[in-house]
Specification:
58 residues; alpha+beta; 52% strand
């Protein structure tokens, strides 16, 4: 397993703000890391407006 740094933007329409996060995720591939972070952020923020900006290998 590798560690990936994922940069995420979350748009909250009610507050009309964009929140930016940097998350470190363990995964087997870049696509898996992207998928896991997107699911995690949707559960945390309660919104579907989650955009993955970039994924870097740590």
């Amino acid at each position: 397993m590798n560690e990936y740094i994922v940069k995420v933007s979350v748009i909250k329409t009610k507050e009309r703000k964009v929140f930016k996060y940097t998350v470190v995720q363990k995964a087997n591939s870049i696509l898996e890391a992207e998928k896991l972070v997107k699911e995690k952020m949707i559960k945390k923020e309660g919104t579907g407006c989650v955009y993955i900006k970039e994924v870097l290998k740590k």
